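Researcher: Next sequence.
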Amino acid sequence: MKESFIKRLLYATEWSRVWSGPMSANTQSNRSTTPAGSAGVTDRPAGSDQLVTANLPLVGYLVSEILARVPAHVRRDDLTSAGYLALTQAARAFNPGRGVPFGRYAAMRIRGALIDELRGLDWASRGVRTRARTIDAAREQLTVSLGHPPGDAQVAAHLKVDAEDVRAVTGDVHRAGVLSLQDVSDRVDLDGVLSGHEPAPEQSLLYRERLGYLGDAVAALPERLRRVIEGTFFGDRPAAELAAELGVTESRISQMRTEALGMLRDGMNSQLDPDLVAPPERPGGCSDRRREAYYAVIAARPGLRIGGVPTPVPAVATAA
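Model: Next structure:
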């Protein structure tokens, strides 16, 4: 069993519950009440597309204006996206009857959106920025009057606050600074600085153990379900070909695949995390006994196998 195919099967067993779970009530009501072809349709005033197209350069101009006054770590793409969204919203809300040119109205909306975007990107609070501006203004005044840059104690005396408060605000501002790895990578080889992505030894061991349980779980499936799983994930065979081989319809192949993935998921969880095993619908019933027998076969595995290759084990005798 090739490891690449096993990874595909692992992914399927982890996510099959998401895709094959029951449809929520909200989803059912949305599907039943939403008219066909109306999803995503919004009413837009006539001419809004032309206004957006004609004023696209305005966004670039305002973004460049903002970037000249902000730290270098602020990305142009983030501001441009916010500016384009604001331009679109301005075009939809524009009322020519008010006598305001669209360019002036859109510029106001775009500037506001860019400021909101900067506030969202800023790790420092507005209070910290306000105190930092007060301290910077005091430093500039003292530099002019003293003829040299003042110290924290001089700034604190000028503002009539404690020197510790001045140092605390300066530290908050420095911690809010963001370093761009893209800029650093242009000057420094990050391969020698950042840690590697190789998994730790204990992670590799747990992963190989997981593959081993998966191999046993596949081998212990009922024959017809096992042939569907092996044909789908290991042989990459189409459903029509499997349906013809097993003498069933393609929809039945899909049902068998879903059933097999559920058994694989529960079979692995029965050994790795029993709390995740779904409770039986009828405890002690025929189906519950078959699943318990299936779990027992997986539990009888000979031990951890480094390669993750399944050991031949008797399949559980259940009808698919």
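Model: The chain is about 65% helix and 0% strand. Residues 4 and 316 are 26 Å apart (CA to CA).
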